[in-house]
Design a protein that fits this description.
The chain has about 325 residues and is an alpha/beta fold. The chain folds into two domains: about 190 residues, Vaccinia Virus protein VP39 (Rossmann fold); about 80 residues, Putative methyltransferase TM0872, insert domain (DNA polymerase, domain 1, Orthogonal Bundle), CATH 1.10.150.170. It contains 13 helices and seven strands. Helix 1 packs across helix 3 and helix 7 packs across helix 8. The radius of gyration is 21 Å and the shape is globular. The N and C termini lie far apart (about 50 Å). About 5% of the residues have low confidence.
């Protein structure tokens, strides 16, 4: 039976066009062999299917995803050019060096994960307090909250949710744990958070930042992003494209700083006669969804896509 939860791919055409707009026609680029693209977050396959539609007969597409539901969706793609790995994209570096013509990272969370109460991501629908991208591995949020100290909970909410009421929320969670146990469901946690947040941003649920923080922490999302970005420098061929779509400022800041760091020559001030470290990337632009896309899919409004190209260094 088909899933009742659907997903609309954000910046679909823009991302695929950026991947395939390789302007490096040098002999080195031609010598890299058949094209190979990497979709590091398969999700529900929107980007992957679009890439396959433009892939040459000899090309390859390798996808990654931790979510078993994403793997079930990927099983519907009967194309010998396609393969998927049940891994997070921190494992990108396991691909052969300089083997990828382009790498796409569509960060964040898919609509089916949010909309399905059983996954435990939503503060609007009651479900188990889980939030794992891969529910077969690691601790759920409820299991972590059962032993985490108040200071640790507060730090996670502050650093990953940028929530100014992190301290009161953490204290409320620990007090509840001591009295009646950890909140077992998403709505229980959302109500607890709402009671600790004194003022609310217009149009935003008071639990929004706390749920984001717990999701990012429990899945080590920012650490995985940093590892994958570094790995992309090894995996990309000269002239290959890196395309990253982020959905909140914490992700975008990491991507922006990474591209900026590797898009300039670095000089060693302690040794002015030493040759500079050559730049490894060329920044190729920043794209946001059009007004038409945001109107069709309001969840796309916070998306930012950054594009860079691997140099021959």
């Amino acid at each position: 039976m088909a899933s009742p939860w659907t997903h609309t791919t954000v910046l679909l055409n823009e991302a695929v066009e950026a991947l395939f707009s390789n302007t490096d026609n040098s002999p080195d680029a031609a010598a890299n062999g058949p094209e190979c693209y990497v979709d590091t977050t398969f999700g529900r396959g929107g980007h992957s299917r679009a890439i396959l539609s433009r892939l040459s007969p000899t090309g390859r597409l390798v996808a990654f995803d931790k979510d078993p539901e994403a793997l079930a969706e990927a099983a519907h793609i009967q194309d010998p050019r396609f393969a998927i790995r049940h891994q997070g994209f921190r494992h990108l570096g396991e691909l052969p060096p300089r083997s990828a013509t382009g790498v796409l990272m569509d960060l964040g969370i898919s609509s089916p994960q949010v909309d399905n109460p059983a996954r435990g991501f939503s503060f609007r629908h009651d479900g188990p307090l889980d939030m794992r991208m891969d529910p077969t591995r690691g601790e759920s949020v409820a299991e972590w909250l059962a032993h985490a100290e108040a200071d640790q909970i507060s730090e996670v909410i502050r650093d990953y949710g940028e929530e100014r009421f992190a301290g009161p929320i953490a204290k409320a969670i620990v007090a509840r744990r001591q009295e009646r146990g950890v909140p077992a469901t998403t709505l229980e946690l959302a109500q607890l958070v709402a009671g600790a947040v004194k003022t609310r941003e217009s149009g935003q649920d008071p639990a929004t930042r706390t749920f984001q923080a717990f999701r990012i922490f429990i899945n080590a999302e920012l650490e995985e992003l940093s590892q994958a970005l570094e790995a992309s420098l090894d995996v990309l061929q000269p002239g290959g494209r890196l395309v990253v779509i982020s959905f909140h400022s914490l992700e975008d800041r990491i991507v922006k700083q990474f591209i900026a760091q590797h898009s300039r020559e670095e000089y060693d001030r302690r040794n002015p006669f030493a040759l500079p470290k050559v730049m490894k990337l060329l920044a190729r632009g920043r794209v946001k969804p059009s007004a038409e896309e945001v109107a069709r899919n309001p969840r796309s409004r916070s998306a930012i896509m950054r594009v860079a190209q691997r140099t021959s260094a």
